[in-house]
Amino acid sequence: MRTWFYHPKSKVALWEDAGHWIMQDRKDDVNASIIAWVDAL
Hints:
Elements: H1 22-25, H2 27-40
C-alpha cells in the first residue's frame, strides 16, 4: 500500500482489531497519530 500513497512526509500505521470504521474503532490511536503527524510537519 505504501507505493500507492507515497509522499515524503506520509506515514502508514497498522493496527490490529480494527474494522472498517477505524476512526471509531480506534479513535484514540487515530487522533494521536494525526496529532503526531501534524506536529512533525
